[in-house]
Amino acid sequence: MDHVQLFTDTSRACAKLITKRYSTSFTLGIRTLDRRFHLPVYSVYGFVRWADEIVDTFHAHDKAALFADFKRQTYEALEIGLSLNPVLHAFQDVVRRYGIDREFIDAFLLSMEMDLDDRNYNQSLYEQYIYGSAEVVGLMCLRIFCEGDTALFDHLREPARRLGSAFQKVNFLRDVRSDYEERGRVYFPGVQYERFTDEVKRDIEADIRADFEAGYAGIVQLPRAARLGVYLAYVYYLKLFHKIRQLPATTILGERVRVPNNTKLLLLLGSYFRYRLARV
């Protein structure tokens, strides 16, 4: 038995387990991709999830020190092609196999570092944070889906960024209360938590709608093996966005809007039939 391969396979299995434990919606989306994409995308999610956990969860510890060590281990894994941290080992393997750009990883880690500080975001920081925390994650996945087709990647790069931006902004809108109360953050530039009104909410929603429209234009051009999974994520976030749009700002500040699991399954079925009918 090749024990190096066994270690890599086990590391990938760890990333898959992390995804299943942390995100039912993301797991559903991955399972609708062609099987060859499952483990690579799980590996990307495991890396992203672990970094996010460090900056958002371990309040009783020195998060800056923990993150600095995680960052050091990440670059070491990328340099030598091995990590004893299974999440990082699985991730570096995907980075090498699919040629994921180092710039995407740098931008992601920088955005996670930004979360170590409580702050209000101006327009420049807001755009920088969204690019690093969400858009580059979509670009990492796009590298996987394009399987070395650089022309296709370049063609779909901007729609992939816009789709990632839409997803992140919906998260910000859904979590506006918890981000402020638990982490001292207001991501939307120029928005004061105490003055989060219906008018402010409508302006944010108009920006998100434009991102969704631009992102959808890229989904329909994805390789067919990846299209259904990305479309399902789009449908899920669009459903969440529509629920948020129907509620006043005071409700958003009072409760966290969710899409129930049974609704997620219905969205999956509807997405599948649209896909089979070649309507997406």
TrEMBL record:
SUPFAM superfamilies xref list: Terpenoid synthases
Keyword list, A-Z: Transferase
Domain of life of the organism encoding this protein: Bacteria
GO BP field: carotenoid biosynthetic process
Molecular function (Gene Ontology), one example: squalene synthase [NAD(P)H] activity
Official protein name in the record: Phytoene/squalene synthase family protein
Species, as recorded: Hymenobacter metallilatus
